[in-house]
């Protein structure tokens, strides 16, 4: 590989890494409520206030139990969503970006177990959902 091709490859890698960092940064802002999310509670049409639907309101990560905090909301540490596990006594399953975004929108997880009704159903763009996934998948 010549010098020019090596430099181009390095630039492409740096740009890709910067985009991934920007995406995860946007995802963290969505998770913490610094960027607004829109959501409703299952069975209701009225949108919740944006401060109410911040992920950190329930997914605190401070629980003694590694799988759920006092509200029953799992600690969404890095890799947790992608791990195969039984959720709510359903069959083993795991999330990928597509199934994660679908669950946020519909309240149905990858193995068709309904999320708890207190979990908002979100109106979220593909771009914002990808950013939130990137943050959660990298979060430690």
Notes on the protein architecture:
This protein has helices at residues 3-32, 97-106, 126-138; strands at 38-40, 85-86, 92-93, 121-123. The chain has 140 residues and is mostly helical. It has one domain. The strands form two sheets. Strands 1-4 form a two-stranded antiparallel ribbon. A hairpin with a 5-residue loop joins β2 (85-86) and β3. α1 packs across α3. The model is unreliable at 5-18 and 63-67 (pLDDT under 50).
Short description:
The protein is mainly alpha-helical and 140 residues long.
| CA(first)-CA(last) distance | 37 Å
Strand arrangement within the widest β-sheet reads 1-4
- Main sheet specs: 2 strands, antiparallel
- The average pLDDT is 81
Overall tally of structural domains:
1
Strands, total number: 4
Helical run tally: 3
Helical fraction: 25-40%
Rg, rounded, reads 17 Å
Q: SSE order, as H and E?
A: HEEEHEH
The best one-word shape is: globular
Q: In percent, how much strand structure appears in the residues? A: 5-15%
- SS-derived structural category: mainly alpha
Ranges where pLDDT stays below 50 over 5 or more residues in a row are: 5-18, 63-67
